[in-house]
Structure formats: C-alpha cells, structure tokens
Amino acid sequence: MVSDTYFPTDAECLLKSLLIIEMPKTFEEFGLRFLYPDNWQWVPEDDSNSATLQLPSGGFCSLLLNNSDQTNEQVVQAIATSLGAEYGQIESDPLDITQFFSNGLAVDLEFYYLDLLIISRVVVTQISGDRFVFQLQAESRDFEANQLVFDAIFKQLRDSSTADSES
Fold it and tell me: What pTM did the predictor assign?
C-alpha cells in the first residue's frame, strides 16, 4: 500500500531547524528545486537564464544557467574581474568543490567595501547536464550567519542531482 505521508529530506529538516519560520519558500526554475528562507526575496531578472534571491541583510544568492564555451576558470575569472573593476583589489581563495558538488570549481572572492569585508563565493558545477554558476555574496558576518542556509541549499541541489543521475 502506498502512503500519502510526506517525509521531508535531511536538507529540508536542516533548513527548517536553522530558521525561525513557519514555511520556507520553494525555488523552482531552470529544472532546479530547493527551499529557501521566507524572509529572502526573489528579485526577477531581465535575463531568463538567471535568478537572484536577496537576503534581508543586503547580501544575495544568484544563479545563472551558463552553457557558454568558457571554461569554469574563465567564468570565475570574469566575475573576479568585474568585482575588481568595481571594488579594487580582490583576493581569491580556491575551495574544495567536493564540499558542494562532485565536480566543478569553487572559489571565495574577498574584497573590502566601506571598511567591510565582503565574501563572494562562486560555485560552478553541472546539474542535470547544464552548467550553473552560483554566487553567494554578503558582508563577512552576514555570510557566516547564513552559511548553514547556503549549505542546506547546496545539499538539496546535490541530493536532487544525485537522484536525477540514478534514475
């Protein structure tokens, strides 16, 4: 007998336990699906291949469907160059991609704006055959405060891409 009972995933439980909210919102675009805090605001983009979620503290989480011919390194370098043109010196710290996904490239780009340290984490990976670029950016204290939420979003995406590859 099939039950209609819904059991949340580990990532959904983690996200709900981290936030003092009744119901998280669901992002469903570009073949991706994940929960995010209900106090984050989805900002529509002119480009139909991208989306941005604004954090209440002023940071953001953006994603871009990017199937260009650029390498992952070139994509990250273009973002770093753009940030450098606007904010000056950028420090780049490569991260182990396996903490996010099984393949791709992950880098923390750090810079100062008005005496505040800004962290811009860029993660480039393949999900269900498409390349996505994720950019998570916030002032360092806000970034750290939202770190577990960012991790829960990546876990949901990783779990769903693993489920896609198994089916």
Answer: 0.83
